[in-house]
Amino acid sequence: MTDTDEGSRLGWLFDSDPKLLIAVFGSIYLAYVLAGFAFGYTLRGQLNSLANLTFYVAVFGMAALALNLHWGYTGLFNIGIVGFMAIGVYVTAIFAKPPVAQGGAAQIGGFGLPLGVAMIFGVLAAALAGLLVGLPALRLRADYLAIVTIAFSEIVRFTLMSRTFQSFDVPNTVFGVDLAADTVGLGGGGGLILNHLSPLEALLRALYLWDPYLGFVDFVAANFIANNPKPVVDGLAYGLVLLGVVGIFYWLLTWTGESPFGRVLKAIREDEEVANALGKNTNRFKLKSFVLGCALMGLTGVLWYSGRGSITPPSFRPNITFYIWIALIIGGAGSNTGSVLGGALFAGLLYEGPRYVKNLVEAAFDLGDGPGSFGQAMAALGGSLDPVPFVVYTLNSIGQLRLVIMGVTLIWLMHNRPEGLLGHRKETAASIDLSRPERAEPGGEAAATDGGEQQ
């Protein structure tokens, strides 16, 4: 291979999607680090902020990629994402939690399986739910499918809150397999305590890296963070693991999109009747796409919530679904790079950004207690021209203000950039290059190959 070929390969790398993603990720992380230094954040505070940022960049990137398979590839309007996430994490918890003897402790137990095996059950349960929803619903179009999916997600949430499935006993043996007498269930409104291994610890133990990891934590404690550095290191390490999972999602969906199966999905998105006329069973293709996307959403839910101490039904309200939709819209539907880009921008600027600004200001300035209502804040601003009460009230209401910022951003995108930041990309429908090579004309000009004028 010549130097020219090598240069062209490197040029392709740095002039394509990897360069764009590196630039966006680098800009977001640099802004967080510089802001932390400017406002006097400690090293522990900086690392905690970066760990939270990495976590949300990764989970929103995974969720946006899964949604892109439904909407961007196939044109399926699914707004019940959080329901499939809830199924994935709850089923995983039931199979992974340690057993609790019947009639013993009040806490709800599980089957005590290894977390990796339990995650497989969780993903399969989400896929099965997608199959059950998709069989009748995928014959419906756009708005009707959206109604069915959001209704399903709410049914899941209220089922999780129901006392009927809060707890129940299981037999000692099932099909000849010996099971410990156990009390399992969904936990009702109180949710479930996740007393199984965290995904990070389970992964490191499976790879025989747990002891070296603990040694690294001791090294950090001896040289950088003296007071209990393990939660900080855990957060950073888990965030990096999740970024690796985002890369796997990206590869899987890119491979799917470039396969014959993916090209049929895009044909369905553009015009389902034409795809039907060409002999494709569009209902079957849509069902396969829907089930695969639901499985990925279930896995996203497992990785998102399994690292917490507990899970409760209010964690799976519809607002999570709309956050994921905003992330996809920001990057641009139909583009896997846009999905990851949108997840990063949404997490860094709209989801974590306002909360990070609040933490920075409170760490740098002692603003005291603020007014209890918007009217009191405006009265202080108009009466004494003192902006501090209004600023404190704004910081205390950052959660509500964040929703306003998201809404304004979404409205701006719909009016000015409805196709997202990357826009709709033209993709080759064939797996081989079908263009005609240019041939030189007697006059020296190359002939136009599209029947038009030579540009």
What would you say this structure looks like, in words?
- The protein is mainly alpha-helical and 455 residues long.
- It has a domain at 44-314.
- Helices cover 65% and strands 3% of the residues.
- The protein has helices spanning 3-14, 17-38, 43-74, 81-96, 115-137, 142-161, 199-206, 210-223, 230-258, 260-270, 272-277, 282-305, 318-331, 336-351, 353-364, 374-383, 388-396, 398-416, and strands at 168-170, 173-174, 177-178, 182-184, 192-193, 310-311.
- Strands 1-4 form a two-stranded antiparallel sheet. Strands 2-3 form a two-stranded antiparallel ribbon. It has a two-stranded antiparallel sheet with strand order 5-6.
- Strand 2 and strand 3 (177-178) form a beta hairpin.
- Helix 5 (115-137) runs antiparallel to helix 12 and helix 9 (230-258) packs across helix 10.
- The chain is globular, with a radius of gyration of 26 Å.
- Mean pLDDT is 85; it is low at 6-14 and 446-455.
Order of helices and strands: HHHHHHEEEEEHHHHHHEHHHHHH
Largest sheet: 2 strands, antiparallel
- Give the overall form: globular
Q: How much of the polypeptide forms β-strand, as a percent range?
A: under 5%
What number is the mean pLDDT? 85
In DSSP terms, counting alpha (H) and pi (I) runs of 4 or more, how many helices? 18
Backbone CA Rg: 26 Å
Cα separation of the termini: 33 Å
DSSP E strands, number: 6
Order of strands in the sheet with most strands: 1-4
Topology at a glance:
Elements: H1 3-14, H2 17-38, H3 43-74, H4 81-96, H5 115-137, H6 142-161, E1 168-170, E2 173-174, E3 177-178, E4 182-184, E5 192-193, H7 199-206, H8 210-223, H9 230-258, H10 260-270, H11 272-277, H12 282-305, E6 310-311, H13 318-331, H14 336-351, H15 353-364, H16 374-383, H17 388-396, H18 398-416
